[in-house]
Design a protein that fits this description.
The protein is an alpha+beta fold. It contains 8 helices and 5 strands; from the N terminus they run E-E-H-H-E-H-E-E-H-H-H-H-H. A 5-stranded mixed beta sheet has the order 1-2-3-5-4, with helices on one face.
């Protein structure tokens, strides 16, 4: 685990979510030149793939990585992976299209050895191209209405109102905008208050029993930094078949060696 990002590695797969602050358009203090320690961490993906020789990998980040000042990071990662003999594909996925009550767009790079089939991008399950309606803010927040027994029910206080200092009010019958890790927390759709940490987790599709620890500010940051659960699940399922193929092939080799 990298404390400022997320790195999960198995024998056949790596998932790498590098820190996004230096790429995010919501970061008003974004560094565009000179020393960019957090942005430079994204380049570690090439080293991780080299060290593990994994069959597949997934890289996730914000769409701001495609901006003119940032895209060289993506190009350098791509060149490094191609040099190692891997195939790559990039796409932008929106969380609301996979059952999360949030529009949140994210860039995903799929990576696979040339000897391994390239995983397909997940098919949209919600919205106009499918049989399921988008999950709305009201749908999501109704899960916790009137239940004060749940963890993380604290909320941030502010003297600002929607429209001031970046604060927005959620629309009940629409998907939420991106839930940020910053101090700018959206307002409830019918009450003049910021949503609680637990309500923010609902907009990220976390189970109600999942508890966040630390200060209230830390809890908001943890929720905002997470990839929404349903989007994460869709990405994971899209490479499941490839991993099953690899594991089955590996098990067959082990059995032959034992015989």
């Amino acid at each position: 685990m990298i404390l400022t990002g997320c790195f999960v590695a198995y024998q056949f797969k790596i998932h790498f979510s590098a820190p996004c602050q230096d790429f995010s358009k919501a970061n008003r203090h974004q560094t565009t030149g000179g020393k960019r320690d957090r942005a430079d961490l994204s380049l570690l993906l090439v080293d991780l793939v080299r060290m593990t020789s994994c069959s597949t990998a997934v890289f996730e980040n914000v769409v701001g990585i495609f901006d003119r000042n940032n895209v060289h990071y993506l190009k350098n990662i791509s060149k490094g992976l191609l040099h190692l003999g891997y195939q790559i594909r990039c796409t932008c996925l929106h969380a609301c299209n996979y059952g999360d009550p949030q529009k949140r767009p994210r860039i995903f790079m799929y990576i696979a050895k040339k000897s391994v089939p390239m995983p397909s991008f997940p098919s949209q399950t919600h919205g106009n191209r499918s049989g399921w309606n988008f999950i709305t803010v009201k749908d999501a927040l109704s899960r916790v209405e009137g239940d004060d027994s749940l963890p993380n029910m604290m909320g941030r206080n502010t003297s600002a109102m929607p429209g001031q200092h970046g604060f927005v009010r959620l629309m009940p019958y629409d998907c939420a905008p991106t839930i940020r890790a910053s101090s700018v927390t959206p307002f409830h759709y019918s009450e003049d208050r910021c949503i609680t940490v637990r309500e923010a987790t609902c907009l990220q599709s976390f189970p109600l029993f999942y508890t966040f620890l630390g200060s209230m500010g830390s809890q908001y940051r943890q929720v905002g930094n997470a990839v929404p659960v349903e989007l994460s699940t869709a990405v994971g399922q899209s490479i499941r078949q490839i991993l099953q193929y690899e594991y089955n092939d590996y098990d067959s080799d082990v059995h032959v060696a034992e015989e």
